[in-house]
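dude i think i finally got it to work??
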Amino acid sequence: MRRTIINSLLLAATAAFLSLNWILQADPNQRNFEVLPDMAHSIPYDSYASNPNFRDGMTLRLPVAGTVIRGITPLHYAATPADAERAGRVLVNPYPATDAAARTRGAAIYNTYCEICHGVSGKGDGIVAQRGFPTPPSLLAPNALGLPDGRIFHIITYGQKNMPSYASQIDRDDRWKAILYVRSLQRGK
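look at this
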Protein backbone atom coordinates (compact mmCIF):
# COMPACT_ATOMS: atom_id res chain seq x y z
CA MET A 1 0.00 0.00 0.00
CA ARG A 2 2.74 2.42 1.02
CA ARG A 3 4.79 1.52 -2.08
CA THR A 4 1.79 2.25 -4.31
CA ILE A 5 1.35 5.71 -2.76
CA ILE A 6 5.05 6.54 -3.24
CA ASN A 7 4.99 5.33 -6.85
CA SER A 8 1.83 7.36 -7.53
CA LEU A 9 3.45 10.49 -6.04
CA LEU A 10 6.59 9.96 -8.13
CA LEU A 11 4.51 9.47 -11.27
CA ALA A 12 2.52 12.64 -10.51
CA ALA A 13 5.74 14.61 -9.87
CA THR A 14 7.27 13.37 -13.14
CA ALA A 15 4.10 14.26 -15.07
CA ALA A 16 4.03 17.71 -13.45
CA PHE A 17 7.72 18.27 -14.26
CA LEU A 18 7.28 17.25 -17.90
CA SER A 19 4.13 19.41 -18.23
CA LEU A 20 5.91 22.40 -16.71
CA ASN A 21 8.90 21.81 -18.98
CA TRP A 22 6.64 21.73 -22.04
CA ILE A 23 4.77 24.90 -20.99
CA LEU A 24 7.94 26.86 -20.19
CA GLN A 25 10.04 25.47 -23.03
CA ALA A 26 12.68 27.83 -24.33
CA ASP A 27 12.77 29.26 -27.80
CA PRO A 28 14.42 26.56 -29.98
CA ASN A 29 16.24 29.30 -31.90
CA GLN A 30 17.96 30.52 -28.74
CA ARG A 31 21.10 28.89 -27.31
CA ASN A 32 20.93 26.99 -24.06
CA PHE A 33 22.48 28.35 -20.89
CA GLU A 34 26.12 27.28 -20.57
CA VAL A 35 26.98 26.16 -17.07
CA LEU A 36 30.78 25.92 -17.63
CA PRO A 37 31.62 28.16 -20.59
CA ASP A 38 35.37 27.69 -20.07
CA MET A 39 34.95 23.98 -20.75
CA ALA A 40 32.88 24.56 -23.89
CA HIS A 41 35.12 27.26 -25.34
CA SER A 42 38.65 26.40 -24.22
CA ILE A 43 41.64 27.96 -25.95
CA PRO A 44 43.54 25.39 -28.02
CA TYR A 45 47.34 25.48 -28.05
CA ASP A 46 49.56 23.83 -30.64
CA SER A 47 51.96 21.24 -29.23
CA TYR A 48 55.09 23.32 -29.74
CA ALA A 49 53.52 26.76 -29.21
CA SER A 50 54.23 28.80 -26.10
CA ASN A 51 51.63 28.47 -23.38
CA PRO A 52 51.13 31.07 -20.62
CA ASN A 53 49.39 28.51 -18.39
CA PHE A 54 52.68 26.83 -17.42
CA ARG A 55 55.68 28.32 -15.68
CA ASP A 56 58.11 27.06 -18.33
CA GLY A 57 55.87 28.34 -21.17
CA MET A 58 55.74 24.93 -22.90
CA THR A 59 52.51 23.35 -24.11
CA LEU A 60 53.89 19.87 -24.74
CA ARG A 61 54.32 18.20 -21.34
CA LEU A 62 56.59 15.32 -20.38
CA PRO A 63 54.77 12.18 -19.32
CA VAL A 64 54.43 11.50 -15.62
CA ALA A 65 57.23 9.35 -14.19
CA GLY A 66 56.35 5.68 -14.48
CA THR A 67 54.02 6.19 -17.47
CA VAL A 68 53.77 3.09 -19.65
CA ILE A 69 52.92 3.31 -23.34
CA ARG A 70 49.67 1.49 -24.05
CA GLY A 71 50.28 -1.93 -25.52
CA ILE A 72 53.99 -2.04 -24.66
CA THR A 73 55.16 -3.88 -21.59
CA PRO A 74 58.34 -2.26 -20.29
CA LEU A 75 61.56 -4.25 -20.12
CA HIS A 76 63.11 -3.85 -16.71
CA TYR A 77 66.67 -4.46 -17.84
CA ALA A 78 69.68 -2.25 -18.36
CA ALA A 79 72.56 -2.58 -20.83
CA THR A 80 74.78 -4.29 -18.25
CA PRO A 81 76.37 -7.76 -18.18
CA ALA A 82 74.45 -8.58 -14.98
CA ASP A 83 71.11 -7.76 -16.62
CA ALA A 84 72.12 -9.68 -19.75
CA GLU A 85 72.74 -12.70 -17.52
CA ARG A 86 69.40 -12.17 -15.75
CA ALA A 87 67.59 -11.84 -19.10
CA GLY A 88 69.09 -15.17 -20.13
CA ARG A 89 67.63 -16.80 -17.02
CA VAL A 90 64.23 -15.06 -17.05
CA LEU A 91 63.15 -14.29 -20.62
CA VAL A 92 61.75 -17.10 -22.75
CA ASN A 93 60.95 -17.01 -26.45
CA PRO A 94 57.15 -16.91 -26.77
CA TYR A 95 57.32 -18.59 -30.19
CA PRO A 96 57.87 -22.35 -30.36
CA ALA A 97 60.48 -23.79 -32.71
CA THR A 98 57.64 -25.39 -34.71
CA ASP A 99 56.03 -22.04 -35.62
CA ALA A 100 56.82 -21.87 -39.35
CA ALA A 101 55.21 -18.45 -39.86
CA ALA A 102 57.27 -16.92 -37.04
CA ARG A 103 60.46 -18.52 -38.42
CA THR A 104 59.69 -17.15 -41.91
CA ARG A 105 59.20 -13.65 -40.46
CA GLY A 106 62.41 -14.16 -38.45
CA ALA A 107 64.25 -14.99 -41.67
CA ALA A 108 63.04 -11.74 -43.23
CA ILE A 109 64.20 -9.78 -40.16
CA TYR A 110 67.55 -11.58 -40.13
CA ASN A 111 68.08 -10.92 -43.87
CA THR A 112 67.26 -7.24 -43.39
CA TYR A 113 69.17 -6.39 -40.21
CA CYS A 114 71.56 -9.20 -39.27
CA GLU A 115 72.86 -10.69 -42.49
CA ILE A 116 75.02 -7.68 -43.40
CA CYS A 117 77.29 -8.42 -40.42
CA HIS A 118 76.64 -12.06 -39.46
CA GLY A 119 76.40 -13.37 -43.04
CA VAL A 120 73.84 -15.51 -44.80
CA SER A 121 74.66 -18.63 -42.79
CA GLY A 122 75.48 -16.84 -39.51
CA LYS A 123 79.25 -17.43 -39.63
CA GLY A 124 80.14 -13.74 -39.15
CA ASP A 125 81.22 -13.28 -42.77
CA GLY A 126 78.75 -10.60 -43.82
CA ILE A 127 79.49 -7.79 -46.26
CA VAL A 128 80.34 -5.35 -43.44
CA ALA A 129 83.02 -7.70 -42.09
CA GLN A 130 84.42 -8.12 -45.61
CA ARG A 131 84.81 -4.34 -45.87
CA GLY A 132 87.04 -3.95 -42.82
CA PHE A 133 84.68 -3.69 -39.87
CA PRO A 134 85.61 -6.01 -36.98
CA THR A 135 84.25 -9.48 -37.63
CA PRO A 136 81.23 -10.32 -35.46
CA PRO A 137 81.21 -13.65 -33.65
CA SER A 138 79.83 -16.61 -35.52
CA LEU A 139 76.31 -17.52 -34.51
CA LEU A 140 77.33 -21.15 -35.07
CA ALA A 141 80.18 -21.05 -32.52
CA PRO A 142 79.82 -23.04 -29.27
CA ASN A 143 79.48 -19.81 -27.26
CA ALA A 144 76.51 -18.64 -29.34
CA LEU A 145 74.96 -22.12 -29.27
CA GLY A 146 75.05 -22.02 -25.47
CA LEU A 147 73.40 -18.61 -25.12
CA PRO A 148 69.81 -18.74 -23.91
CA ASP A 149 67.18 -17.03 -26.05
CA GLY A 150 66.67 -14.34 -23.40
CA ARG A 151 70.36 -13.44 -23.52
CA ILE A 152 70.28 -13.12 -27.31
CA PHE A 153 67.13 -10.98 -26.97
CA HIS A 154 69.03 -8.73 -24.54
CA ILE A 155 71.95 -8.46 -26.98
CA ILE A 156 69.65 -7.48 -29.86
CA THR A 157 67.79 -5.02 -27.62
CA TYR A 158 70.74 -3.32 -25.90
CA GLY A 159 73.74 -4.25 -28.04
CA GLN A 160 77.04 -5.77 -26.96
CA LYS A 161 80.63 -4.72 -27.74
CA ASN A 162 80.66 -3.63 -31.43
CA MET A 163 77.03 -4.55 -32.01
CA PRO A 164 74.67 -1.61 -31.51
CA SER A 165 71.15 -1.81 -30.11
CA TYR A 166 68.48 -2.73 -32.62
CA ALA A 167 65.55 -1.98 -30.30
CA SER A 168 64.44 1.02 -32.35
CA GLN A 169 64.69 -0.83 -35.67
CA ILE A 170 63.30 -4.26 -34.77
CA ASP A 171 59.95 -4.69 -33.04
CA ARG A 172 59.98 -6.77 -29.84
CA ASP A 173 58.04 -9.66 -31.41
CA ASP A 174 60.29 -9.59 -34.46
CA ARG A 175 63.38 -9.87 -32.23
CA TRP A 176 62.01 -13.14 -30.85
CA LYS A 177 61.23 -14.34 -34.38
CA ALA A 178 64.76 -13.48 -35.52
CA ILE A 179 66.09 -15.56 -32.62
CA LEU A 180 63.88 -18.41 -33.78
CA TYR A 181 65.46 -18.15 -37.22
CA VAL A 182 68.98 -18.01 -35.75
CA ARG A 183 68.20 -21.22 -33.85
CA SER A 184 67.14 -22.84 -37.14
CA LEU A 185 70.47 -21.74 -38.68
CA GLN A 186 72.28 -23.28 -35.73
CA ARG A 187 70.39 -26.56 -36.24
CA GLY A 188 71.28 -26.45 -39.94
CA LYS A 189 67.70 -26.18 -41.19
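Helices lie at 2-23, 37-40, 81-90, 100-118, 127-130, 142-146, 149-158, 172-187.
im so relieved honestly
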